Amino acid sequence: MSSIKYIEEATDYLKHRGFDKPDVGIILGTGLGKLIDSVAIEAEVSYNHIPNFPTATVEFHKGKLIYGTLAGKKVVLMQGRFHIYEGYSLRDVTFPVRVMHQLGIKHLLVSNAAGAINLNFKKGEIMLIDDHINLQGDSPLAFRGVEKMGERFVDMSAPYNLEMNRKMEQLASDNNIKLHKGVYASVVGPQLETRAEYRYLKIIGADAVGMSTVPEVIVANHLGLPVAAVSILTDECDPDNLQPVNIQEIIAMAAKAEPSMIILFTELIKQL
């Protein structure tokens, strides 16, 4: 069975469950599920009920696809995402993006929790992703037959939509939200970085590091789907003063910054 057949099966199932022509797709990162409270929900399906869909295995990822209205637009939200560190292939990780595109989304918004490599950025703040570095050692486009789904050699000179990013920066200014802009490095994980790895990431130009987002953005570009992404900075990665990681603090920092992210996403969706 081809990938295209898998995508069509999942899409047909969701259409029959009321997922009708969404305008915007949203992927919510670790500890960032509260945006759903702002959605007038019309349909929701657990991932494990959707044909060919991977299943979320991380305890703070809920594992539901949600459809409804937000800021006057029809949206489809991923509450919980997939990671290569859970044992999935990058084709699994990005399968939902292809399904949301097949459902009809015209824009994609992505959030993640990340560590601040740039020490001018502080935990609890937000970074708009301007560019990225793929350190996952693989590509979601590296498979036979990819050319049937779009251009194989996808241009990545501007992977994050410039117009959406400009609007987000303006909205941050209008709402008095501190919004950094920088480069996101995506690693495999799930282990956190060593001091030497943090130094390396800084040298190669990363401002933040995480374990997601880049595969979904590559596939969005493959599909010609405008995408914007933000990192919620949950910890500060100072190799000279490195403290053991505290997952509870990371979740708490995500919760601290989340209201600002919700304002940015909601106001941006109004303008799309």
TrEMBL record:
Its EC number is 2.4.2.1. Residues 24-270 form the Nucleoside phosphorylase domain. InterPro entries: Nucleoside_phosphorylase_d (IPR000845), Nucleoside_phosphorylase_sf (IPR035994), Pur_Nuc_Pase_Ino/Guo-sp (IPR011270), Purine_phosphorylase (IPR011268). Pathway: Purine metabolism; purine nucleoside salvage. It comes from the Bacteria. Keywords: Glycosyltransferase, Transferase. Pfam families: PNP_UDP_1 (PF01048). GO terms for molecular function: purine-nucleoside phosphorylase activity. Transmembrane segments: none annotated. The purine nucleoside phosphorylases catalyze the phosphorolytic breakdown of the N-glycosidic bond in the beta-(deoxy)ribonucleoside molecules, with the formation of the corresponding free purine bases and pentose-1-phosphate. Belongs to the PNP/MTAP phosphorylase family. This is Purine nucleoside phosphorylase. It comes from Aequorivita aurantiaca. The lineage of its organism: Bacteria, Pseudomonadati, Bacteroidota, Flavobacteriia, Flavobacteriales.
